[in-house]
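BUG: 3D viewer hangs when loading the predicted structure for this chain

Environment: internal workstation, default settings.
Expected: structure renders.
Actual: progress bar stalls at 90%.

Input used:
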Amino acid sequence: FPSHDIAPGCQNLDLKAQKQLFDRYAKLLLSISLKYCNSMADAEDNVQDSFIEIYHTINSFKNKGSFEGWMKRIAINKAITKFKKNCKVVPLDTAKNLYPIAEVVIEAEEIEMDIVLQCIQNLPPQYRMVFSLFELDNYNHKEIAELLGISEGTSKSNLHRAKLILKEQIIHYRQNRHHGVS
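Structure tokens produced before the viewer hung:
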């Protein structure tokens, strides 16, 4: 939980305490939001919306698990809610999901994290959402399916396709970098 001087202030909706909490955790929640949102502006909006909910529900945090983890969940859930509202999730033909999907290995060493994040941002929204939930925030396919209202097979297929796209983007980046193109 945040320091003993900030927590009671936030619980009492004290603006100074809220600003301290925002200043301490805004960058963290922005980095989380960037994984799920379509743009920097959308991610910034998600951070604002997340803090509004954090301020209004801070009394519900019961010191079970980490406070940071609780805030991350709020930011992720806000992004998922917006995703579901703004993007029609189209389940794939279930016959396509009956075949086992080979693992795609992405070798991202020697690539700066901002380039990898940019590649993730370039994924189609449904692929980005599944990839981020599974690979970056350790959700399983059952949880992802429930959150997004899709089947587990669709979640697995979307993850596989996201990895294929990322692999192509990384190969393209390496080839351009090797040839001096940026």
